[in-house]
Amino acid sequence: MDPEKKTAGGEEKRATLRYQDEFLHDWTLICTRIENGLKLGDQLKQALEERASLEEKYSIGLERISSKIFPPATESTSMASAIKALRNETYRRSQQCRDLCETLRSDVLCDTLNNMLENHKSAYDHLFSSGKRIASELQKRYTNFTKLRDNYGIARHNIGQLSLRYHELSRKKSSQEKITMLGGEILRKILELNDMEKEYMNSVDSFDAYHKFYLTEMKHIIDILEDMDTKRIKCISDTLMKVMVYDMSYIRNLQYDSDYVIKSLQEIDVEGDINEFASRFGNSNNIDNHENSVNNLALVTGNQRIDASQVKKESWREICRHMNNIKINDDEFITLSTSQMAEKNIALDNIVDIQTIISNLVNPVTAIKAQKAVRVLFSQFNMIINEGAKNYTDESYLNDTEFHQEMDAILEKDEKSHSMESFSTACSADVATSKNKDRAPDGMPNSVEGFTDTSVHEKVDFQSVYKSFIETIVKLDDNNKLDSKDVENALRIINNQEEGLAESNNCDYYLSIIIDEILRREGNKLYLYLGEELRQVLFKHMNMIMELIQNESNTWLFRKMLFISESLIVDESELFSVIYKHDVWSVVKIWEETILLCISEQFQRGILESDSTELEKFRMLKNIKYFDSLNNVDNLSSLMKRFGIPEIPIITLFTKVCSQNGLEKSYCDRLIHKIKNIK
After folding, report:
1. In what residue span(s) does the F-BAR domain sit (predicted)?
2. Between these two residues, 620 and 181, which has the higher pLDDT value?
């Protein structure tokens, strides 16, 4: 058949050819094509996996390179800007390589190519075995048909030979006995021939019927194989197209960054840089020309100052030596409020370029970490110390009786609640409280949606209600046979009080009570026997908390719910089985924040352990067992696997958190090693 035909207009039109028309009696050619196509898919899969690994290694190398590029403090403005642009371009390229690696593994390989290969391999194995069985049965029936046909032909031929012999004896007038015996033999052969003819005709009918069945089934199998081949071609085409799209996006991003670097390089002013360096550090520097900007700037350190003129004229090594010899009076420095710092002309940003000093005094790797630490400290400093708020670092306030009374109240409240959270949690809560107080005028509620719900919430002590409810249901056990009075009492306590779980602080307290009960049990497993009615109430509460976690992206509640999910067993069923299908478990951002939170809390614990005094204070405020249970990074990776997250995305997420927050590679490698060893 000619695949191309001439139409009426003279244009060539491709004819549609079907596999079942062309390969019905030789379907093994299609099988060979399918097998080779699957091999091609495997080769492409291996190539893309290797490409993703190379991109990941390239990303790590670029990030390491970017950490080594720092302009020295003696460098002039235009050159320093160009070097910083190059460093940023290198770092962004490393991030783009990492994103490309993750995209290849998740979108291209996992979601597209791998699924096609797995589905097609299993479907092809089934179709091939079915087709082989049908073809084998057809061949078997055809062999039986040919055997009976040949036997029938031989029998007819033998009867014909005996008939000729019979006529020959009759003509020769042989003895009657021989003629009679020969006639009897012929009759016996004829009867056998009749039976053989019936078997032969039955084999013909059987073969014809099965041949029709064979054609029907084979057409169906070949149609499926053709559909598989079509989808395979489209899948490989889509895979390669996705790779090209991501590659082009990667190239465009590189072009944008490279254009910015080129622009920065073109703006380098050689003569201007020479003049700038000479004016900043040369002997001809005239201090009077800068009296409006730097003459009054000085860094207060105890009873001494470092003038801006010293920074200009002395070498960096001399300045560092001079700074080391100065005794800093910390008590005087920390008592300065923002207004006092302004009165004393302390403007740190105008005196010292933090990034420049750090990059000159330490190696580049340490510089990155130090810069991040300084930024975090300054952000906390600016948040806590502000005009119109209490200055907790003021010396007079430290000695104030009111301060000690407030601290005692906080400690007493913490002991009563048993909510042993991290220091950072407490700070977050205090900041949120102060913000709400700042927003609301005196005598007015903070909520702007209405006064009804607010007044109800003020009258109901939800924390007391939830504590009583949890304590009541924990006392129920299998031996009590779920006394109806106890069940009614538990339902009465919580009746119409679920609305309190719309607030995160109540949810936090609710989960904290459960965790306290879990930690009191052997093996950190809390078994509850509630019955149908109470079980539905508890599960309703958990679902409400899960909704609040998702709506507010509350990492703290998320972390507690993770711990409870495998430690709370209600009527022989883990809480995990109830909350497993919730959408929040597929939110990558909250997993990322939880990993970072647990790692930072573990670091905090390690830092405090290095100082016995601080550790003792920490133990006074925190339940160490509670703290360690919530911040177990190793257990976190195990829980992520339980919630259906594969190992490779877990490793990728941990690596991303470590790299973005400047953690040591050795620490990241230890985490990954532990993740791989967790079954």
Report:
1. 11-273
2. 181
Q: Residue by residue, what is the 3-state secondary structure of 35-65?
A: HHHHHHHHHHHHHHHHHHHHHHHHHHHHHHH
**Mean pLDDT, range 369-386, rounded to an integer:** 48
Is residue 224 located within the same domain as residue 95?
Answer: yes
* Contact of 58 with 97, CB cutoff 8 Å: yes
Q: For residue 407, is it within any domain?
A: no
- Identify whether 637 is part of a domain: yes
Shared domain for 627 and 505, answered yes or no, is yes
Give dist(CA 19, CA 262) in Å, integer: 57
Tell me if residue 260 falls in helix, strand or coil.
Answer: helix
Same domain, 304 and 242: no
Task: Say if residue 25's pLDDT is above 50.
Answer: yes
396 or 611: which leads in pLDDT: 611
Neighbours of 558 (CB within 10 A): 22
Residues 6+ apart with CB under 8 A from 170: 179
Q: Which amino acid is at 494?
A: I
CA atoms within 13 A on the CB side of 619: 7
Write down the pLDDT at residue 611.
Answer: 62
Full DSSP string of 151-189: HHHHHHHHHHHHHHHHHHHHHTT--HHHHHHHHHHHHHH
Segments forming the whole domain that contains residue 598:
418-437+455-677
For residue range 408-428, list pLDDT tens digits in order.
Answer: 554 444 444 433 333 333 333
Together in a domain, 43 and 144: yes
Please write the tens of the pLDDT for every residue from 548-601: 888 888 888 888 888 888 788 887 777 877 777 777 777 778 888 888 878 877
